[in-house]
From TrEMBL:
Molecular function (Gene Ontology), one example: DNA binding
Domain of life: Bacteria
Annotated family: Belongs to the ParB family.
Organism: Hymenobacter polaris
UniProt keywords, alphabetically: Chromosome partition, DNA-binding
Cellular component GO terms held in the UniProt record: chromosome
An example Gene Ontology biological process: positive regulation of sporulation resulting in formation of a cellular spore
UniProt feature, compositional bias: Low complexity: 262-272
Keyword DNA-binding: yes
Domain ParB-like N-terminal: residue ranges: 57-147
Protein name as it appears in the record: ParB/RepB/Spo0J family partition protein
Lineage: Bacteria, Pseudomonadati, Bacteroidota, Cytophagia, Cytophagales
Length: 322
């Protein structure tokens, strides 16, 4: 009988412990203790606790929206594929930067290429630095990151500078400090936007270089600028030659022709086939590439390429043997 009384006491104690357990919420799971830390979504439970500000967190790529202020709209697909291959092997070395717009939504500030490449690599989440930024700060950070880290052409850089000045209300002095350039460099880029559209397109596409463009800027007449630009393209003029032509007045309007003066006959054009044949003969003779660049006035240039100082001395010895 004593054993029965002990069993009754034990059962009563267990029943009391169970009642305390139910009342305190123990055994109901973490959700019963941290109200609102999970939310039922279909059959799954999704964390709603946001990442702390100014920290790096692993964020699902589907929760990251594109930057509406992204200055670049075209990304080379081959380069993206190469970056995706690298990410598959090495992962994301540098986190992207985002701002939080909702409990589980983020907006990209910088790192568009890394985000796109991560999606190509099949990543479902990537490391991201979460920071606070308003719309103007987002535009400024996206433009500055683009200028500093992307292989932009001169026109894209100039347009980014212009947007920073006009949309972010920066002065040229402040802009130079933000992008790590002196004021004269910023000014030279901005002046490119005053060139005629044809020349800007040529500079953007690599038809001419920054040196050619700077020489053309010093010409005031747009028609004269376009005329000299076409000569640069057709005659493959060097930057030094263009600067000489500008100093000689190639960009100034031509003086009215004297109708009483006898007309000079134009220099006969050298057939292209003969030029190419002569170039091949000279190339074989010097052992280096030789180019002939005649003009319509009968003048021109002979260009002999060399790979080193020793190669130059070899060519000079052929021209002037001891």
């Amino acid at each position: 009988m004593a054993l029965d009384k002990n069993e009754e006491k034990l059962q009563a104690a267990l029943a009391a412990a169970a009642a305390v357990k139910r009342k305190s919420g123990l055994g109901r799971g973490l959700n019963a203790l941290i109200e609102g830390s999970y939310e039922k979504k279909g059959e799954n439970r999704e964390r709603l606790v946001p990442h702390p500000m100014n920290s790096v967190g692993q964020i699902p790529v589907e929760q990251i929206e594109a930057n509406p202020y992204q200055p670049r709209t075209h990304f080379d697909q081959d380069a993206l594929a190469e970056l995706a291959d690298s990410i598959k092997i090495q992962g994301i070395i540098q986190p992207v930067t985002v701002r939080q717009t909702g409990t589980n939504t983020y907006q990209l500030i910088s790192g568009e290429r890394r985000l796109q490449a991560s999606k190509l690599a099949g990543l479902t989440s990537i490391p991201a630095y979460i920071r606070k930024a308003d719309d103007q700060q987002m535009l400024e950070m996206a433009l500055i990151e683009n200028i500093q880290r992307e292989n932009l052409n001169a026109i894209e850089i100039a347009l980014s500078y212009q947007r920073l000045l006009s949309e972010c209300q920066l002065r040229q002095e402040d802009l130079g400090e933000r992008v790590g350039k002196n004021r004269s460099t910023v000014t030279n880029y901005l002046r490119l936007l005053k060139l005629p559209p044809d020349i800007q397109i040529g500079l953007r596409d690599g038809v001419i270089g920054m040196g050619h463009a700077r020489a053309l800027i010093s010409i005031e007449d747009p028609q004269q600028q376009v005329g000299l630009y076409r000569r640069i393209v057709t005659e493959d003029l060097s930057v030094r030659r263009v600067e000489e032509l500008v100093r000689q007045g190639a960009g100034r309007p031509e003086a009215p022709a004297d109708k009483t003066a006898p007309k000079q006959a134009a220099a006969p054009a050298v057939p292209a086939a003969e030029l190419r044949r002569t170039e091949r003969v000279l190339t074989d003779h010097f052992g280096s590439r030789v180019q002939l660049r005649p003009t319509a006035q009968g003048r021109g240039e002979i260009k002999i390429a060399f790979d080193s100082v020793e190669d130059m001395q070899r060519i000079l010895h052929i021209l002037h043997p001891a």
